[in-house]
Structures are given as C-alpha cells and as structure tokens.
Amino acid sequence: MTNSKTLFAALFAAAVVIAAPAANAQTVTVKVLGAGSSAMWQTAAIGAWAQLAGTSPQHFTVKGSCTSGNCAQIHDSRSASILPEGGNLWVVWSTDNPSLINVWAYLSVDSVVGNRSYFATPRTTLQIDPETETGSGFSTQLISSALWGNDAANLPSNVYTALNNAAITTAFTDIRPEDARFASCRTLNELETGTYLGLGYGTGTTCSTLIGTQILSAFSTTVANPVAFSIKGTDPFTGETIAPYTTVDVGASPIVFIVNRSNGNGLGAGGAGTPTITNLTTAMAQTLWSGTECDTNVFETNAPETPVYVMQREPMSGTMNTTEFTTFRCGNTAGTAGTCPVTGNTSYHNSQEKNVVPPPQGTTNANNPLNLACTAGGGSRMRAIGTSEMVGTAVKNTTDSIGYTFWGYGNVSKIAGTTSYGYLTLNGIDPIQSSYSNGELPVCESNGVSGICPATPGTSFPNLRSGAYTAWSVLRVVTNASGVSLTNTKILVNAIENNVNGYVPDFVPFKPVGTTEPGLQIYRSHYLQSGVSPNNGLSSEHEAGGDMGGCIEPVGPAPGVLSCHQ
Q1: Which residues pair with 247 in a beta bridge?
Q2: pLDDT of residue 16
Q3: Parallel, antiparallel, or unpaired: how do β-strands 58-62 and 170-173 relate?
Q4: Which pLDDT value is given to residue 15?
C-alpha cells in the first residue's frame, strides 16, 4: 500500500549524498532487511532485539509522512510508473562493538507487496527520508516501551546510510509465494463474474497487465497498487532471471472477525457483557460480503433490521486472500455454502468481490473507492487498505460495522478492552480462547504492565492448534535458497519463535520450542498454484505449491483430514 503523498526515487537518491558518513571506519552489516505482512512485524522486532543485537541493543520505529513524503518506503526500479509503497518501519542495531554494528529492519506493507519486493528483479530497495536521521526526537515508538524500552530519537548516520537504498533480502508473508502471485494475477486480470478468477483491475486473462488500476480506500487517500511479478523464470518487466528461493515457516495465526458494538439496537444488541450477536457462520459471511443482504437480520431472524456496514480489504492483501479462501470462496455454482473446491475449478462462485466492478484506470465510481450499497438491508460494503485502517479507522469509527484481521494484540489494540467492540466466533468456534465469553477483544497486559502478556507454552490459540478453527494461515518468510541471506533469516526466525510466547503470543510457533511448546501440529495441504506442483514436505524449506484454504491435516502418521476446504 502507499499514501498519495509520496516522495519519488530521485529525492531519496539525493538524500544519500547529504547523509552523514560513518565514523571511524565502522563496519555496518545489514543482517536482514524485510518487507511484508504486519502479522509478524512486532514479534520479529522483539526477536531481533532480545536475542540477536547483543547486550545493549538499540531500536527505532517510524511511520507515516515526513516533510518530503513517506518516512520509509519500498522503491521498485523496474518501471518509472511503479509508485513507491510506504509502511511502518522498525530498525534494530547492536552497539556492543562500535567498530562492528549489525542491523535488522522490517517495513510493514502487505504480503503481496512483500513478495513483490523480494521477487522483483532487480530487487526493490528500502528508501528512508533523511529527516529520520536528523529530525529532533523523531521516533514514533510504534512498539510499546513496556516490551523493549524507549526508541532512539533518530537513526544513527551509519545505520541510516547502510539501510537507505539497500535491497530487500526477505519477504514476510502470511500466504505462500505461489498464492501471492496468484492473488496478484487475479487482481490484474479482467473481470470474470462467473468464477471471479479475474477481478478487473487490469485487462486480459493471462496476467499480462503489468501495472493495474489503483485500488482506493473509502476512508483515506491510501491506495493499493497492483503490480505484476513472477516467482520463477524471468521478470515480467525486465526479463532478468529470477533467483531460486525458499520459504521458512514461522507460525500460524487466525483470522478474527471484529465488530463495532456501540449501537445497542444493532450489533451491540443485548448490552455490555451479554451480546446476542456472537457467531458468524460461513453462510452468513457469504451473504454479508457478497452484498446480498447487510443488516442484523442476517445474524438473528427476529432481530431489528439495523443496517450493517461490511468492511473488506484490498484483493492483494494476504489477510484478504486467507479469509477469501477459508470462508468466502466456498460453495457450488448455485452459491450454497459448502467445501471450497480446488483453485481454478469452475464451480467457484462466491467471493467478497462479488458485484464489485472496477472502473477504467484513472476514474472512480462507487466500486473504487468501494462504497457500494448492498442489495438489501440498507448497509453497504466499504474498502479499507491495510490492517491499521481496517481496525483503527473502518471498524472503530463506523457504527454497526464488521470486518476481519489477522490476530495480533498490536493489530487490535485500538479497539481492545472495551465492550463497544468485540469479535465473533466462526461457525461456533472461538479463534482466540478455548471458549467464548462476552467477545471483548483482550488487552495485552500482565501484572498490571500493559504491552506484555506471556503465555504458557503450548496453550495459545487452542482451537487453531486442534484444527477446529478453520480461518487461519501459516506465517512464513521467503528468502534466497542458499547463502548468507538464508542463514541470517533462519537465525531471525528462531529468535521470533523463541520469544513469541514470552512477550506477546500473537501466533502459534511453527516448530517446537524447548520441552513444553510442541509447535504447530497441523498443516494445510498444498496444491498446484502459479505453475508450481504441490509438496507438503513438513520441512518448511521443501514445501511447494499453494496452501491458502487447503485441507487441515494433522502432522505425523495419524490418518484423516480434520477439515477440508481444498
């Protein structure tokens, strides 16, 4: 995603010239420079800080606009027409040895942009506004000081110089690269209303559009930019050969359906502590997000018909695609709820993009920015770009709204800890806890300290761990198939998994940690996607093919499928 107030590459290139040089022949080594999903953004920062950056680690975070444009952004040099993608940036660096400084950094965008950032050939680069180096007290403390103390006020000159215009080494993603490319092509293909395998932000049916129509937000000037990339063969812009890659699994996180309950006669019916609207079925979700009917009668047939406002993400989002293929994209050609067919099957029918008809590039209508009245019920469907806007703007500020997000204490912090907002079970299963109480979104707090909430190993997200909750995905990283980037990325992944239970348990660690954390004991079956044949190999570096919405199966010799969507 990007903000309309952007700074183009030439300004950032000029900034390199005026940046202060490193002092005393210091060696600054960038260990990992990542881009992608918000789902791992905070835990990756804590992992680098707590385990990798020595005894006196330093850190810095920043978001939004600086004087000249985005404070931090991804630059894709493959075409001058590709706009930069702004995001939230954290940087961690070591200080134990002043002559040898190691650096880790991560820009939160979305999963498809993260994959594009890595697979673009030549690689995209991180650009940082020079104000982050010289501005007074510039850091925005995006991660609670209770977790890791206070941010540095600025980026040191040597760290700034090492990161600015450096190439991305790693993609952080909540869908596999094969699924990310599928999502990109689906967005860029012409609209196909029978199967919705093309969403109409480009032309043609073979992913031939390189830069598609911008996808606009209903709430801000933020936009999503559909841009083509490939994961094997040659780059669609430059024709250069794409380097071999691998994936390393990090953990599993649930999609959580969130609601604005501030209206006691709407989604807040029943009052604080005893809400009557607590569950969302697959059929209900399909009714709401297809725009067929948008009112509280969808949940309770005897409820007052209060309009409901349905919030959805941009179709290149990993969050959107995980939700699409575990919940919305199910049923036969008659549209009845059922199991999801395999990717590409002509029986695909349902989609949260149903009846969304994008306008020609450069124009707008009620479909872009999406603010489309539902067929019945009086509500409407609206587009939010990015997790922060979905939670902190769309759902927070819209009475009787419903949306979704990958779980994360930081992701939901703006609406947690109050009965004015909440979450729903999906098909009667709680995504976060073993059983549902009042549906209030929990706050991360331990012994009165806000921002840290350690979990007993093996206990987080019990219904995801068992396979009972179906809307989830494995979080993973993508990097070079061999060499120093793979080594450094795997070291960071180990640190993330080692620390996730001890600080903020945002997801289930993929592999066992110590003697009490068993790790994820289920997986999603893989399938042919983006021309890549499936391989379920449980060593994550040997996985291949798509898996969003795949069958949920147990790890090990135990036979049987726990739940099947593919």
Answers
A1: 478
A2: 39
A3: unpaired
A4: 39
Select from 321, 281, 323, 233 the least CA-distant residue to 426. Answer: 281
Q: Look at residues 424, 541, 556 and name the one whose alpha carbon lies nearest to residue 476.
A: 541
Rounded Cα gap, residues 430 and 271, in angstroms: 20
Q: Report pLDDT for 555.
A: 87
The average pLDDT across 182-209 equals 93
pLDDT average, residue stretch 364-387: 94
**Residues 160-187: b if buried by 16+ CB within 10 A, e if exposed:** bbbbbbbebbbbbbbbbbbbbbbbbbbb
**pLDDT value of position 565:** 56
Query: Where do we find the tokens 């395998």?
Result: 197
Strand-strand pairing, 100-108 and 27-36? parallel
Cβ atoms 403, 258 nearer than 8 A: yes
For the chain, what's the residue count?
A: 566
pLDDT tops 50 at residue 109: yes
The reported pLDDT for the residue numbered 338 is 38
pLDDT over threshold 80, residue 450 = no
Closest CA to 325 of 176, 214, 189: 176
* Residue 313: per-residue pLDDT: 97
CA 33 – CA 44 distance, rounded (Å): 11
**For the chain, which domains are there?**
9-174 (no CATH), 251-466 (3.40.190.10)
Report the largest interatomic distance among the alpha carbons of the chain, rounded to a whole angstrom. Answer: 74
**Pairing relationship of beta strands 552-554 and 522-524 according to DSSP bridges:** antiparallel
Residues 6+ apart with CB under 8 A from 328: 285, 286, 289, 290, 350, 351, 352
Alpha-carbon distance of 313 to 355, in angstroms, equals 15
Bridge-partner residues for 244, per DSSP? none
d(CA 473, CA 522): 11
Distance CA 403, CA 396 (A): 10
Q: Is the pTM of this model over 0.85?
A: yes
